[in-house]
Write the structure tokens for this entry.
Amino acid sequence: MSAETLHCPTCGRTLEAAGQTRRCAAGGMVLSLYVNRALEADFGVGSAPQPQPRRWPLLGGVWFCPADATQMVESDGVVVCPHCGRSLAHGTLWQLIELHMHAPIG
């Protein structure tokens, strides 16, 4: 795991180190190794926006950019950061929705 700062895609708060992965203390969510590596690759230092194929007509929900904590927007079925242009890959989104429970915040 690299030491760079990443933010929780569910609430935007800074993720903490948790062994070989990261966790969102506010939401009680520990990232799987798969999701942690995907976020490092797609949102870590030196990463660049990668085009994502359209998959779903409407995904919904509120998502935050792991690179800069900006609230992301959905455009043509792709969740994109309006600030840096990076997008959450569909496999990562599926993992977050189905396998990563995040407690409601305030």
Q: What stands out?
A: Helices lie at 33-43, 90-99. Residues 23 and 30 are 4 Å apart (CA to CA). The chain has a mean pLDDT of 89.
